[in-house]
Design brief:
about 240 residues; mainly alpha; 12 helices; globular
Amino acid sequence: MTLTLRPRAIWEGCDLGIRLLQSNFRSAYSCYLLVALPLFALCFATYDIAPWLPVTLIWWSKPWLDRTVLFVLSRALFGVLTTPQDVWEAQREVWWAQWLETITLRRLSASRSFTQPVRQLEGLTGAARAMRVRQLAARHRGVARAMTQSFAAAEFALMLSLVSLQLWLAPKHADVTWMSLLSGAAKPQTLALTLGYAAAATFVEPFYVAAGFGMYLNRRVELEAWDIEQEFRRAFAG
């Protein structure tokens, strides 16, 4: 493993996952954008149907997009560099396995980034998977939900910051106000909100997945003493 695993506080586990993402930033984002950009383009194509539809579709597709980031991070944990070609070759496992459940039941889960590694990486099904999720999430589901809310707030703040550029850079004679921006009263304002949300989601979502993966790793250290196993492997590597 490329990380030094040891018992940590649960929030420190989140930071561990984010550090893993930072050290594999280029690989994670190149693979993520391979999937996200074409999907967001399709979402934008629905604007003429209803102005609110692109944002809704982007929001709804997040758990499916998360699977690519988690795939990259799970390989990075063992020092394996992932390229877009690797993701493409593993698309059946990464993109299409459990896709219906991913965009339905799991979309409404407030602790999905914490429990997703169990569902995607451990290969369990049925009752065994449900029991495993309960075991790992015991006493930590509240923290996972709080983390989800924190990242949602960060994403919303970033979106507002991007959208507000339209207000700050508008000429003085332009009739652009905060109310017109947030209400999406005109097509330019609605497009600005949609673009701002897409950009914010593109940047923030991999960090959210990484934080949940770090919590998952930390929980496995608590339950299975991964840190001790890691030290034994190093000691007897020769």
